[in-house]
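As the next step, I selected for study a record pairing a protein sequence with its backbone structure tokens, which the following lines show:
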Amino acid sequence: MQRVVLFDTGKPGRDVHAGADVIRRVKRGCMVVDSLAWDFVAIALSAYAADSSSLRSKSPDGWTREFDLTVAVRHPDVWNNLAEELTRTLAFLSTDRWTIRFIPGGIAPPSPRKPHRPELDDVVLLSGGLDSLVGALDLAAQGKSLLAVSKLVRGDGERQRRYAKRICKGHHVFNDSTKTLRNAESSQRTRSLVFIAFGVLVATSLARYNRDEGATLYLCENGFIAINPPLTGLRLGSLSTRTAHPVFLAGLTRLFEGAGIRVGVENPYRHKTKGEMLTECLDQARLEELATDSTSCGRFQKFNYHHCGRCIPCQVRRASLLAWGDVEDDTGYVYDDLSINDHQHAAFDDVRAVAMATIAVKTDFGAWLGNALGSPDVPDRAALRDMLRRGIGELAALHEALHVQ
């Protein structure tokens, strides 16, 4: 059994802790937040602390773990009634087995002396990545006044602030400040849940939410990465993020509706490839200025805050910039020339997986797709199938341009 202290640091060396910085951020912003949304932040932090503290390598199959959480919240009856839905949603996100129960005694959200309720339209998650940049640009071009929410990530902080200042009317940066007692699990599939929870919390601080109008949180991700289909039969779906997958977002929708949290989470790009996002962006001038400054790499920190150029997110990025064609891709990739026939370039696992997928799609698209869209919670299957075909087409064009054999 491991004790986790929420919204405080606990005792150094004894307690896993998470969220100590959140109260400071809410106080600093003079936010009035929904206590149910505050509970959801506590739930997300608890799941992330458990996820980070348990190494997958120690599990019987080397991946799947079993978690049994007891979380103190402000509204235990509400969340106990939703525990089954929550465990299903978490299981889909992290591919683990979860048991969760709720007890009273959760810390209350701060009550500011001078409440600030922003008269803004909606909230957008702003990560510093290319997709979230396009999303913010499009929403602003549509006339929406936006409040940006970022999660502090080393190497992206200045970029997040710069984008928010250029595009949005306000900006909140949160740090989950999670601390484990030993080396943290690197996969951390629940990390994105914390980011979403921060966005939902901020959405409840809007004036319109306090007028019972509800609010929208925009999570902008290209449809190909959102589905993240296994590129080959040797690649496990659980090795891919599921943050914007329609099954996960449908689970969140049911949770928020059940809890009475009036925030809708939307991904406007679920039917678009990354290349289509760039090509159809409503603010081409600003996108041309900022696109190659954004981040996409799955190993950005590992390579000293440079794009590796060969991971799946890097290949999707490179393919999208090629499809767009409006700017020269001067990102500066560590592994730029993927045609080199060695294990660092063309024979690297991710590059080889994309090459194999492009061949498999030509032979039998349905067989390659497999059960990637099999869940009953997946809407618009025909549109998603077409988008995935176009996404593979962008990757195939990249490999052809780079002379990858």
User: Anything to note?
Assistant: Residues 117 and 207 are 5 Å apart (CA to CA). The beta strands are 4-6, 16-18, 66-72, 97-103, 122-125, 146-151, 170-174, 215-218, 263-266.
